[in-house]
Specification:
The chain has about 375 residues and is of the alpha+beta class. Among the domains are: about 110 residues, Immunoglobulin-like (Sandwich); about 100 residues, Immunoglobulins (Immunoglobulin-like), CATH 2.60.40. About 10% of the residues lie in helices and about 30% in strands. The protein has a 7-stranded mixed sheet, with no helix packed on it. Strands 1-10-8-4-5 form a 5-stranded mixed sheet, with helices on one face. The protein has a 3-stranded antiparallel sheet with strand order 2-7-6, with no helix packed on it. A hairpin with a 2-residue loop joins strand 17 and strand 18. The longest helix has 16 residues.
């Protein structure tokens, strides 16, 4: 496969050429308007190349190698992007078809020249990356949404970030972020030692430290004070010093492993069910879903329930009982969850993994 630059005249070497009579190489194939012809197939569309014995389009002459020839392809021959096949159909001669790929000029120059593919700002935007892209998102080169960029950033971006008069709602200028947010006017804010000071009422405090406010206090429904005071105080207080216990699911987090005890029940009522959840499954509404666990004597199959609505996450739950688990072989075995789809009756595997079956410790 050779690459050609779109709409560019180029000399290509073709061959070798053989005789169809005795299979010998033909290094003396001469121009013959009636017997020598090349065909071009541009992405499946055939176009003839008119051969000439003088310089110009279709100029065909012997090359320096054995039975090799040089053919001139014009801009009209290379004007179509994509696959280009060249064949020689001269009476009594044969040449293996030559395949080319015509690529855009920029791609050719990036691969074989000094140009770059048009993926960086300069290639997309031009020699000056500060005009076209900028002017496409701002109306006059200095403003976005009515806010003056020079005022927003300031001539020294380390000092001023936004101006009070250039936004829809005036705010105080925020300056010198390296140390603190310093006040700028009567409505400014200052951040020192974890305290919001000089903040106007209704905008962060009442001129004092908000962390000193009593909770629950007389706060209106829906306010942060009401939520913190009424909804968090009692529950948080009641948890202090109270030990907590967790129930470990028989199914690992990735769903690929389960641990079972031979002869044990795994019921939802005991929070011991086997559950898998995914939003990548097909619609399981009306499907018959089963858990199959392999054993030496065959398979233990447990019916599963389905909750959740496609395309949101759906949960498949199996509740093997003591009769089911008593049939399992001790050690590691394979398991799979299968769904028989409603309507099509197609069998679809949902998840598979490994089950570890442990022996039950006998009662004393």
């Amino acid at each position: 496969m050779r690459f050609l630059k779109q709409s560019t005249s180029v000399d290509v070497v073709i061959g070798p050429v053989w005789s169809t009579t005795d299979g010998s190489l033909k290094g003396d194939l001469a121009y013959n308007a009636s017997g020598i012809n090349c065909d071009l197939y541009k992405v499946g569309t055939k176009a003839d190349v008119t051969l000439a014995n003088s310089a110009g389009d279709g100029y065909f002459r012997a090359g320096s190698g054995e039975a090799q020839y040089i053919l001139t392809l014009s801009t009209g021959h290379t004007d179509t992007l994509g696959m280009l096949r060249l064949t020689l159909s001269a009476t009594g001669y044969y040449m293996k078809p030559e395949d080319f790929m015509v690529v855009p000029a920029n791609v050719w120059d990036a691969l074989f020249g000094s140009d770059k593919l048009q993926v960086d700002v300069r290639e997309i935007e031009g020699a000056d990356p500060t005009d076209t892209i900028r002017d496409s998102v701002v109306s006059d080169g200095t403003r976005i949404g009515g806010a003056n960029l020079n005022t927003l950033a300031g001539h020294d971006p380390g000092e001023t970030i936004m101006g009070a008069t250039d936004l829809a709602t005036p705010v105080a200028t925020i300056a010198k972020l390296d140390t603190a947010l310093e006040a700028d006017g009567a409505t400014g804010y200052q951040y020192t030692a974890l305290a919001l000071e000089n903040a106007p009422a209704g905008e962060g405090g009442g001129g004092g430290d908000p962390w000193t406010a009593e909770l629950p206090g007389a706060y209106a429904a829906g306010t942060a004070g009401k939520i913190l005071g009424d909804n968090l105080n009692a529950p948080v207080g009641s948890l202090v010093g109270v030990p907590s216990f967790g129930v470990v699911s028989p199914v690992t987090k990735d769903g690929k492993s389960i641990e079972l005890v031979q002869g044990a029940d795994y019921a939802t009522a005991d929070s011991r069910q086997l559950s898998w959840t995914s939003n990548l499954w097909p619609d399981l509404d009306g499907a018959t879903v089963v858990l199959r666990i392999a054993r030496a004597a065959g398979t233990v199959e447990v019916s599963c329930s389905v909750s959740g609505t496609y395309p949101a996450a759906q949960t498949v739950t199996a509740e093997p009982d003591a009769t089911d688990t008593a049939l399992l072989d001790l050690g590691h075995c394979d398991f799979q969850v299968w769904a028989t789809m409603a309507g099509s009756m197609h069998e679809v595997p949902l998840i598979e993994g490994t089950a570890l079956v442990k022996p039950a410790v006998p009662a004393a």
